[in-house]
Fold:
Amino acid sequence: MDPPSDAPTPSSLLPTVFSEDNNSRSLWVSAGSTAREVCSLLVKTAHCSDVENWALLELHPSLGLERCLEDHEDVLKIQAAWSLKGDTRLVFCKNYAKYEFFRKPTLFFPQNMISDRGDVEKEMTSSQLIQSGGCPEIQGFLHVKEQSRKSWKKLYFFLRRSGLYCSTKGTSKEPRHLQYVAELEDLNVYTVVNGRKLYGAPTDFSFCIKPSRKPVRAQDLKIFSAENEQTRTCWTSAFRLFKHGKQLQCNYQLSQLRHGNLEARNVSDIKSKSEASLVAMDFSGKAGGRVIQNPTEAQSVEREEGQAWRRREALRCSLPNLSSAARPASIHTTQPWFHGGVSRSDAQRLIEKQGLVDGMFLIRASQQHAQCFVLSLCYKLKTKHYLIIPCEDGGRKYFTMDDGDTLFIDLLQLVEFHQINKGILPVCLKHPCVCVAL
Structure:
């Protein structure tokens, strides 16, 4: 009897992938399928509205470890290295920051962490080296957990192409004072979640490295703790660049092509250049427009445009055919950026997991203030929280974040406004945190 036409080929295997709400989906993939190919398949099966910035997260809940698989990594090989008794899983989620260090190297690699005598090519700056797929030597203090003990030591580390080293004498770089810690080629770097509770970490910004070809076991982990998020991000990004180098740059370029269409990337490049060159204009004169040079005047024009937009929207939504009956007050509950009553810490974790890039946001119901909401927004690798308060004006209910100076009829209007106007925020809303049900 012939096998059914939709039966998998012998070279196919069945991995299980979870979504962030703990639902799961099993799908057939061919041997050798990369993380990017599996994500493309999941985008189609889950009917996602967009196709970019998706990733597979390797999660080890009991150990508090997680890492984003590189686009080129073989998914089945990764799974083959897991312990059969463990709770390891793959999670399908957004990751906007996967290649953000190529776009903003100075934010991810602060100058004080780049060694003066690092193995940077003399004719290139550190930023140019990073953007070309290289990485400068990184240095700085880290707390390190002593093997098989609960105590931590603060040591000075150096990350080079040849490996990770620590200094046995303060911050000395002399070869006689450098102790070899790990080889980069055969290791993976993980973010540690809840490191204080699980490992007694001295800070909230822990990460670890482990051999990539061994099952994840607590005794094989080398756990470090940084002083802040920027420092941790610098170290973990440097590990990735030193290990994968030009391959990461290739992955980044492929991600820009959007289905392998070179023209789409060109359009995107033109658009980004156009957006970068936007200037404030004044069209009130009779002789056409003029460029506004004065920054104070430009900010005033931006405020006036925002107020005019608010008046137009308020008038539009007060018309009979666009009444609250046509646009229910609960419209925000259908939006991908609304996450119900998640806690402040869970919101921060979600933003961290999906990538600390400027403009990433979500809105949640406030747990401390009745009928209020909170906008959680990422800016410069930190999550900021803004209270959204309900108020009344002229017998109608509005929402505000600036004590009533700017009013919005609902949360959807608030988001739409701040996607094109910063208002009181440090950056416009750009990337919504989304959770997809598989």
